[in-house]
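Section 4.2 – Deliverable D4.2 (structural model, holo form)

The reporting period included a commitment to supply a predicted holo structure for the target in complex with histidyl-adenosine monophosphate. Inputs used:
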Amino acid sequence: MNIKALNGFKDVLPGEVEQWQRVETAARDIFARFNFSEIRLPILEKTDLFARAIGETTDIVEKEMYTFVDKQVTMRPEATASLLRAYIEHGLHVQKPVQRLFTIGPMFRHERPQKGRLRQFHQMDVEVLGSADPRVDAELMAMGALLLHELGLSVTLEMNSLGCPACRPAFRTALLTFLEERHESLCDDCKRRSSTNPLRVLDCKNPRCREQVLEAPSLLDFLCAGCADHLRLVQEGLEQLGVVYSLNKFMVRGLDYYTRTTFEFITADLGAQAAVGAGGRYDGLVEQLGGPKVSGIGFALGMERLVLLLQQQETEAASASPALFVAGIGEQASGYAFGLTHALRRAGMAVAMDLEGRSLKSQMKQAGKLKAANVLIIGDDELAASLAQIRNMNTQQQQNVELQETAATVQALLQLTSSSPLTSTSI
Ligand code: HAM
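Output (structure tokens):
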């Protein structure tokens, strides 16, 4: 029986996994620089949490959740709701008035799989809870932009304001009137959405709908004084931090919890799946979920899309090559190499060796394939003389090293490795 992975679920194989690690390492580094702490959350939550946080009439809740109907639990489709649940449950607001948290892990949505769109995908999600300051909005966008820049990716930032419960109803009414006049020209999804969730029509990808909404009223014209002020201060903050962005009045998000600032990091290189990351402010959501009256804002980056972009934009991947390949030739030398390899690994070096008794030629080939920085060659004769050859694979220079005691050799090798002729690539 030939069992394959589920459609939309993907293995990450060696070769690609290094790019994932590179993305995650860069993110963890930046998150630490911006004073975020990690939080780890369960994958399964009560269905009601997502229905209440994300919104009953969103695509995610209506059609994309993996729910165990008999148990009323759901595999998380995003991290924000779970993180807020944990924040409320553990009273994290009492510990610190402003919490800066991040979490990394898999999310699940039953979407139609395609390039950059999976059913199990991974997000790096950051949230700031307890601050309504518009500078936080600017700071978060700047942090996302900096991470993408440090990964060598070229991505643009788009921003919008979705107003608040005070100003959105007037906009909704104006939009409903506008959509009613064009009802017949909308796609079937939008015909349905225009009464349940009219804002979603604004970012429908169907060309017919796109054309219809070109003249639609803009939320930016309906903002109340508080929201307009907030937007102005966010823009000033972005300018002060030197973050390049554009305002996109059509941007609405697929989750209902947003208020005021929303933003997306966009690429032209991934076809329809243009957003590599997205987020926004959600003042009111924590309270709605039974927590204190605190503001919140955050965003999530899609790891699959970042890795695809790294591959496409051909940025240099970090190498996972060993610093040393130990080639033992002959029975005795190979036995010695086996012990030495372990001693070197114990001492902190990334070391590879052949356990199949291959010839020197094929071991050298293997070392080349692994991109080992150095090869230590030990033959039975050399072993008898307590000697080995070490070859720098970049310069092809070879020199003798003495194999006295293992510990001394480890010492010597580690010193050699950290000094000039032998360069360590991966440890
Ligand atoms: P989202 O826009 O649904 O927002 O997802 C954020 C990012 O996750 C997207 O920009 C995309 O890169 C990635 N993503 C989403 N769905 C898929 C998929 N099916 N396959 C691959 N990648 C995907 C949220 O999830 C919000 N919780 C973000 C947020 C945090 N807002 C405030 N705080």
